[in-house]
Design goal:
alpha+beta, Pseudouridine synthase, 2 domains, 9-stranded mixed sheet, 4-stranded antiparallel sheet, 17 strands, binds uracil
Amino acid sequence: MKSKSYRLDRFISKYSAFSLSDTRLLIAQKRIFLDGQAADSIQQKVTEFTHVVLDKVCLQDNNPVYIMLNKPPGVVSATKDRKHTTVLDLIEHPQKNELHIVGRLDFNTTGLLLLSNDGAWSRKVSLPETKLAKVYEVTLSKPLSDKYISVFNEGIYFDYEGIRTQPAKLDILSEYTARLTLVEGKYHQVKRMFGFFQNEVLALHRVSVGLISLGGLEVGESRPLTDSELGFELD
Ligand code: URA
């Protein structure tokens, strides 16, 4: 999940025969183009997805990729696995080998899984500070009660990490089913939260992350995110 970003003069000195101090002159002579526009400052930021042309030669041309998958059960959230089908095995995309997973789901958890090659975006989606809502549908082995709502809202202390979970919203849908909204993604978080009540999670399905929701995407299918799905401002 690396995301490289350079100041323009550093990028030029790293990826061409010109030096850091040559860059000012190259800019003045309008020999550098960033995303089709003549560069105007050595301070300009070059990310891994900035299209860079110097003297009509392309120095960098990477496309960011953002994909959603409706993950089936029995598939590993990993890019490689010796024994099991991985989520990457289900994706057809020319840049699929560049992708990383943005917020893993357990082996038998189903639903919305995001993949990208844009580390900066993935970090923003995953950071608890971003407070992006992750919505899960949960089926439990024992009946639910209103007590869960207040306990989840107050947060549960996780011994292992030594943290209290962020306030989470629980909507009880029936005796054994609920919708849980989290703004973070600790390891096995949903199962551990219901584990506080010794209530085993029998089925877990992620419906949405922020404004991105599965909609009618079939199980096992994937598609690129649309501009409007990417449009929500994370900065
Ligand atoms: N919480 C879990 O316990 N498992 C998941 O797969 C996702 C969230």
